[in-house]
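Q: Given only this backbone (353 positions), what sequence would you predict?
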């Protein structure tokens, strides 16, 4: 847990153990430390957003540009109106899940019916372009990993580098991060990493290997990062990333993101959720999402969650930072809801004087 206010850390604490007992030899009980590295799942999308903002500005690409300008497969009657901004805020209408292209997809419901069968990664974009939309572009928010997969491919097209290489060079290295990586087992020991869900094929947990099946398959086939998931980190490194977003894209006198892009990411929003909710979706960020922060968070709070358990929120002006990383998918994703506990931690931060 990392808590801060007005740029001052209040807590950098570690609690518990990485597993419950020693019943799985590959995942012995190891006390959690502030250096323990976690699979941060969809918090990775915030890193993809940051990389996109850098690459788009350097290539003079406007966020209102149509996706079909870069991927002609999307030039069909129903999809030619999709813009890059709609990928950023999940209003593209794209519903097909990239997880459904993998050998063991765990998605369920209507999304799972849009595709069945394994696809080689070089066919993913074409298959996405062939799938029906859930709704016309721009009408509503439909959160989908596929949007950030496509943004990642744009970054690679514009920069000529793999996404993971671009993020290392343009974000991880300039921020001086020591425990943020796409391949933790190449840099750290197994006991430095919190394991995730038990792999049904091996009965051992995923350890240092990305939990999301689409990101995992993309990494296996390409060696690179998918864009929707794949980053591993710890709370202290994420606090540095939060500072970048609270300081209008600057860190230690270096301007990494353009201030206008940072501001628009929070303020160029569309409504999300129930009609009675104040929650909205910016460029990746959820704004005023009380299910993460609790009811007392000041207006303009921006955050995100991840499937493996993390929640991350900040306020760009007031200076709050609340980072909670835990592994809710060990040994199974069918555990209790962690968000009431995260909101309680948020409440403690908001009540601090």
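A: Predicted residues:
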């Amino acid at each position: 847990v990392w808590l801060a206010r007005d740029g001052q850390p209040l807590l950098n604490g570690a609690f518990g153990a990485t597993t419950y007992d020693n019943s799985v030899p590959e995942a012995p009980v190891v006390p959690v430390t502030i250096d323990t590295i976690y699979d941060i799942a969809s918090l990775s999308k915030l890193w993809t957003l940051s990389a996109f903002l850098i690459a788009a500005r350097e290539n003079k690409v406007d966020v209102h540009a149509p996706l079909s300008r870069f991927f002609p497969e999307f030039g069909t009657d129903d999809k030619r109106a999709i813009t890059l901004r709609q990928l950023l805020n999940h209003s593209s209408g794209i519903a097909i899940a990239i997880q459904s292209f993998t050998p063991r997809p765990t998605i369920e419901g209507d999304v799972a019916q849009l595709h069945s069968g394994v696809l080689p990664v070089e066919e993913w974009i074409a298959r996405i372009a062939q799938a029906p939309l859930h709704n016309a572009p721009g009408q509503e928010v439909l959160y989908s990993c596929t949007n950030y997969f496509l943004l990642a491919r744009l970054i690679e097209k514009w920069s000529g580098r793999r996404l993971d290489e671009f993020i290392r060079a343009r974000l991880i290295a300039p921020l001086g991060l020591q425990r943020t990586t796409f391949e933790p087992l190449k840099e750290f020991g197994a006991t430095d990493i919190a394991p995730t869900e038990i792999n049904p094929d091996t009965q051992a947990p995923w350890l240092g290997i990305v939990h999301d099946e689409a990101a995992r398959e993309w990494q296996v086939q390409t060696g690179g990062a998918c864009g929707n998931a794949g980053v591993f980190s710890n709370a202290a490194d994420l606090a540095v990333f939060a500072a970048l977003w609270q300081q209008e894209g600057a860190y230690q006198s270096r301007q990494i993101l353009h201030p206008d892009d940072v501001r628009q990411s929070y303020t160029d929003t569309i409504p999300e959720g129930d009609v009675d909710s104040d929650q909205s979706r910016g460029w990746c960020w959820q704004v005023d999402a009380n299910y993460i922060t609790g009811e007392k968070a000041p207006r303009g709070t921006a955050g995100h969650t991840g499937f493996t358990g993390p929640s991350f929120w900040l306020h760009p002006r007031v200076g709050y930072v609340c980072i909670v990383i835990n592994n809710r998918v060990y040994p199974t994703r069918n555990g209790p809801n962690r968000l009431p506990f995260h909101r309680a931690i948020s409440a403690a931060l908001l009540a601090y004087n």
